Amino acid sequence: MAATDSVVEVESQIEASTYGEAPDSTYDSEVVPPNVHFEVDDVENDWTYHRPFDYIHCRFMGNAIRDWPRLHQQCFENTTPGGWAEFIDLDLRWTSPDGSLKEEHAGKKFNNEFIKASHQANIEPCPGLYLEQWMKDAGFKDVKGEKFVWPVGTWPKDKDLKERGAWNYLQIMEGLEAFTFALFTKQLGYSKAEVEVICAKIRSEMKDPKLHIMFHLHVAYGQKPAVADTATS
After folding, report:
1. What's the rounded Cα separation, in Å, for the pair 114 and 116?
2. Are 44 and 65 in contact (CB under 8 A)?
3. Confidence (pTM)
4. 61 in Cβ contact with 89 (< 8 Å)
5. pLDDT class of 12 with cuts at 50, 70, 90
6. Which of 13, 123, 211, 212 could form a disulfide bond with 118, CB atoms 3.0-4.6 angstroms apart?
7. Mean model confidence pLDDT for the chain
8. In this predicted model, which residue has the larger pLDDT, 49 or 223?
9. Residues of 94-111 as b/e, b for ≥16 C-beta within 10 angstroms?
């Protein structure tokens, strides 16, 4: 479940072996260190790895997972005693720090409909909100959570937030149709033309520098109890 580039970067510096679930089978084998192995699989199926992992990293799996508690449980069961797991995901509810995003905005209407459609498809669009509790329920201990602002656009004054917002703005503007078509047409009955109109309105609206949109990214991490801890609990 670790992102491919992150796995390669980390494992090129250490000797441990790492397995990652790749999004497809086209990753360039010439740039993959010999101690990195990728498998194309469905993470929601029963895990069949032959040994547990010292560290499991899962990020940005929102709108891909149907059963988050089971995923956390399988991560716990496949983590070595004393090992760690980390989850990173979003709370996709759009808001603004100054009230500039209002209910009548096309972006807010889109966001409300996106969340509604996701729930109708039995998908949790805001898994970041629940990562800590899911980890605790699975059995991890010393679970910690962190919450980060994820701006849309370059409106923040802070340099790091401004850069983060620029990249976020780009991926939203370029990916609107990819995020929207299947959910809106299959779950809400929108036509293709109606979705295209919505996307066009959002793109036009989001060029307004006075519109300060943001959402949140959540990080949760915890440790599987050591064998001694498990035996005495």
Report:
1. 5
2. yes
3. 0.85
4. yes
5. very low
6. 123
7. 89
8. 223
9. bebeeeebeeebbbbebb
Contacts of 188 (CB under 8 A, 6+ apart): 113, 116, 117, 120
Q: How far is CA 168 from CA 4, 13, 56, 59, in A?
A: 20, 29, 25, 16
> What pLDDT, on the 0 to 100 scale, is given for residue 10?
47
Would you tell me how many other CB atoms lie within 10 Å of the CB of residue 189? Answer: 9
Instruction: Give the C-alpha separation, 61 to 228, whole Å.
Output: 33
- Which helix (H) or strand (E) covers residue 193, if one does? helix 192-205
Residues 84 and 76: beta-carbon distance below 8 Å: no
User: Measuring CA to CA, how many Å separate 59 from each of 4, 128, 134, 149, 226?
Assistant: 11, 10, 14, 16, 25
Confidence of residue 182 (pLDDT cuts 50, 70, 90): very high
Phi, psi of 46 (to 5 degrees): -60, 130
Most confident of 13-22, 24-33, 53-62: 53-62
